[in-house]
Write a structure and sequence with these properties.
Alpha-Beta Plaits; 2 domains; 16 strands; binds nickel (II) ion
Length: 441
Amino acid sequence: MATADTATLLPSRQAQTHGLNQRHRFHGKTSPLMALPPPPLSQAITLPADWCAAGLEAPQRQHLPELIQLRRHIHRHPELSGQEQRTAALVAGELRRWGWRVREGVGRTGVLAELGPSQGPLVAARVDMDALPIEERTGLDYASREQGLMHACGHDVHTVVGLGTAALLGPLAPRLRGRVRLLFQPAEETAEGAAWMRAAGAMDGVEALFGVHVFPSLAVGSIGLRSGSLTAAAGELEIEVLGESGHGARPHQSTDAIWIAARVVSGLQEAISRRLDPLHPVVVSFGRIEGGKAFNVIADHVRLLGTVRCLDLELHARLPGWIEDTVHALCRGHGGEARVRYRCIAPPVHNDPELTNLVAEAAADLLGHSQVVWLEQPSLGAEDFATLQHGVRGTMFRLGVAGAAGCTPLHSNSFSPDEGCLEVGVRVLSLSLLRWLGGLA
Ligand code: NI
């Protein structure tokens, strides 16, 4: 673990914003993450029997400075999908500090932690840990120190929301009415990590699953919810168009793969609009096209790479076959052939209405009804949270991160969420987990 440069961890404006004081500023040479002792149990969270909103509020404020430091440390040292070794080691250490039973290497770099009795009802929450191959341009003093890598999708926030939840619930272990499991997932950006963790047994026995993702179009202090479809099913489409090469002057003596590929690109859009139900949107976008050798040579091979999105699970199951048939028909109709490969990246996230209402009530009690925003539209983005949901009821909420000046979009090189979201995320997630278990004993 790299030693954090701690002198600039908490600029005064941030310190004021988050109610920090000098006691929490570190100037030593050791990592603040390792230097912080766990708070004694006497100072830890004690919630009233009905763990009302006020009961959660006070103790969480104790942990907030630590959470901000953790988030900035993780933000400085982003790691690509499947390579989250340092982040995973940091996560595992923090979880053990809060008394969780920890398993590392669950789905490559995944970390699984459990709290509560060894048996009983089991509720889980999943957060992701990976960063993106983006050069950061935020200008923040805790900007990425890894060239070409950036936490531009807020997974550093998610990781710390998970750790904050662990800190908040840890001291409550003896009073839990069932088990809480936290999944720290690798490789969400490549839509591989959920499958890795699932194959390693991370979802075994789980009865309900909660998830969270930052949302730049919502103000910090609020959360967004939606019952039913939240994100789209996503696939990766590769089409090879096969023709016959020849002289550019005599196209009738060859089969022009570039012309046929152009017909495939436009013909697929037309077929979608004429052959599929417009009430169930489907998006096909090609992001890469390659083929041909010279200006006067008819190409015999073109490769198209694209992505497919739709919201309907049943339609998503039929789409690969439908696309393949349509592409073959288009190519053969112009004398060529095609090879079509479709890889499902993620099924749609479907939010269970009952669990979504549970989060809504918890958030309303903690933040006020006006801070709970019901989202009208699902997103055509993809999220492999859906892979974990297979056969298990689950819901994912959106965490508002826009400060007074707004927030740039996810995956932009200037993405900078307002850190006030950490407290909101931890409180809403923790109370949702506790309420699913039926409160404290
Ligand atoms: Ni993301």
